[in-house]
Structure formats: structure tokens, C-alpha cells
Design brief:
Elements (H helix, E strand, L loop, with lengths): L1 E2 L5 H7 L6 E6 L4 H16 L5 E6 L4 H6 L7 E6 L2 E7 L4 H11 L3 H18 L3 H14 L4 H13 L3 H12 L6 H18 L7 H10 L4 H13 L3 H14 L3 H17 L12 E2 L5 E2 L9 H17 L1
Parallel strand pairs: 1-3, 2-3
Antiparallel strand pairs: 2-4, 4-5, 6-7
Length: about 325
């Protein structure tokens, strides 16, 4: 538990809520119910062992915060997550009801364990230790089979390692959903591509051989599509998308729209993860507190590439 003022609110609440939910307890010295609720909240913070952070705001001393959150009665608790208020309650609730409130919003212990394993895997991947990364991701899935992030990352790792059968087995449960999540559909398209280049003779062709045949017939879509898959397998994403665009512009419906689906899969694979909201950005927080810092946002070249090819696909389809 920590006391929060206007001076440390951005750090202790807004920024902290990007990593874990923060429960803000508005109280006052004269408030009897506040004194009853306070020990309950402190007990639960300890019992939940880091699943949320408890902070206290003296409503009398911190009028700006009290007004910004529209506090009308005490005690009032506001749960912050991702820099924004997501829920709250008023009055001195018994421990059981506060637990129900928290359990509705807080990640489970299994989820946190799986998330930690996935973060560990990411660190191993950055260090080039693929074996340790795989072990960490497998542990994450064993802890929580519903952890889609770990499943996605593990399938990508297996695809990069050429372990296609293992990747297909992990992908199957996600592909059975209705609707299929887009990022897993993208991995299925990548799996199809890698299976093609490892089993079809054209997977070993040189690019010159593809170009020779395409030069003889611009509408040789089979050859163009095969070439795009070879380019994808080689990681030449832009060249692959350009080849796919040539098919789409000439025949949008060819092969049940396989070129479009493959193009969309590439965009999904290339799309960088969304950055966490920064606590030092300009403007106001969700609670209406003015932010004074400025962040220099630099455009991600990969995000720019993806946006450019999204526009190209849109133009080709219209």
C-alpha cells in the first residue's frame, strides 16, 4: 500500500497500471467506513501477492484528484488498468464482495505464470537461445493452454526451425475455432507455404526460372503464386506481396482468393505489436489529470511498410 498525491500520481497509478491493475482507495480521516475498509484492502493486497497494487488517496488533501475522478462519497475505490479506470465500488464492502470484485478483473495466477514464461521465452529468443525459448513457451502452454500469445510464439518458433508437423499439431486447436483468429490464420498460410517449398519441386526453382515462365504468360497465376511462396519462405516479404498483387489485380477470385488470403497473412505476420501506452505522453490521463511530459514518437519503418501495402491491397481490390 502506498499513499498517492498529485505529485506521484502519474508514476504510482497511471504508469504502474500499465504493468498490473492498480486499486485506488479514496478515503478521509473523518470517514468511519474508510477505516473499516482499509484493513480489508491491505489484507487482500497481500493475499493476492502482486496481482494488483493498492494505493490510497486522502480525498481531503488531494482535491484535484478527487474532483478529476468525480468522487461523490467515501470510501470509493477505482480500479485502474492500462492507464484507465475500468470499474469501481463505493462503501465499506465486506471481504468476500471485494474478492468478487477483484476476481472479475484481475488475471488468474495461472495466467500470470504463463505470461511470465512467455516473457522469459522472448528474452531467450532475443539472446538467440531457441532451445530455452521453446522450453519456456511449452511451459507457458502447459500452465495455461488458453494462452494464445504463447501458442502463437511457439508455432512461429517451430515454423522458423522447420518443424512443420509439430507446428501443425499446435495450430490445429486454434484453427478449429469459429471464427479463426486472424493471426493463427496467418500462421496456417505460412505453414502451407513452407510445406509447399519442401514438398513441391517448384520450391527448389530459381527465381529466373519463374520469371522466364511468367514472361511468356503474364496470367500464369500458378507460377506467380508458387514464386510468391518461395519468396515468403526466403523472407523476401515485399517481393512476395508484389507478386501476389499482380495476381489479385488480374483476377481477384483466382483459386478461391488464395493470393488475397496469403497477402493478408503476410501483413499480419509483419504487423509489429502495439506499443504499451506511455505514461509520459502528452494530453490528459483517463482520470483527467494533466500530463506535462512529452514523448518523441518515432514512426516504426515496419509499421509504415505494412500500412503502405494495406493501401496497395485496398486499391487492388477496388
Amino acid at each position: 500500500m502506498i499513499d498517492v498525491t498529485i505529485e506521484n500520481f502519474e508514476t504510482e497509478v497511471i504508469a504502474a497500471s500499465m504493468a498490473a491493475p492498480v486499486l485506488v482507495d479514496f478515503w478521509a480521516d473523518w470517514c468511519g467506513p474508510c477505516k473499516s475498509l482499509g484493513p480489508v484492502l491491505e489484507k487482500l493486497e497481500e493475499a493476492y501477492a502482486g496481482r494488483f497494487k493498492l494505493v490510497k488517496v486522502n480525498a481531503d488533501n488531494e482535491q484535484q484528484l478527487t474532483q478529476a475522478f468525480g468522487i461523490k462519497s467515501l470510501p470509493t475505490c477505482i480500479l485502474m488498468a492500462g492507464g484507465k479506470p475500468v470499474d469501481g465500488f463505493m462503501g465499506a464492502q465486506p471481504e468476500g464482495q471485494v474478492r468478487q470484485f477483484l476476481d472479475k478483473h484481475l488475471p488468474s495466477e495461472d495466467f500470470l505464470q504463463a505470461q511470465a514464461a512467455a516473457e522469459e521465452a522472448s528474452q531467450h529468443l532475443e539472446a538467440g537461445d531457441h532451445d530455452s525459448a521453446r522450453t519456456a513457451l511449452e511451459n507457458a502452454l502447459a500452465s495455461n493452454p488458453g494462452n494464445d500469445d504463447a501458442r502463437y510464439d511457439l508455432i512461429k518458433l517451430l515454423l522458423n526451425a522447420g518443424e512443420l508437423n509439430e507446428a501443425a499439431a499446435l495450430l490445429a486447436p486454434a484453427m478449429s475455432r469459429i471464427p479463426v483468429p486472424l493471426r493463427f490464420e496467418a500462421l496456417q498460410q505460412m505453414l502451407n507455404t513452407l510445406e509447399f517449398v519442401t514438398t513441391d519441386p517448384r520450391g527448389q526453382w530459381s527465381l529466373d526460372k519463374f520469371d522466364e515462365l511468367i514472361g511468356q504468360n503474364k496470367r500464369d497465376f500458378e507460377t506467380r503464386f508458387a514464386k510468391s511462396r518461395v519468396l515468403m519462405a526466403a523472407g523476401d516479404w515485399t517481393a512476395a506481396m508484389e507478386e501476389l498483387l499482380e495476381i489479385i489485380m488480374r483476377d481477384k477470385q483466382w483459386d478461391s482468393e488464395a493470393p488475397r488470403k496469403t497477402f493478408v497473412a503476410i501483413l499480419e505476420i509483419l504487423t509489429p505489436p502495439a506499443p504499451k501506452a506511455a505514461a509520459d505522453g502528452t494530453g490528459k490521463t483517463a482520470g483527467g489529470i494533466e500530463l506535462t511530459g512529452k514523448s518523441a514518437l518515432q514512426e516504426d519503418p515496419q509499421a509504415t511498410l505494412v500500412a503502405s501495402y494495406r493501401r496497395k491491397l485496398s486499391m487492388a481490390l477496388n
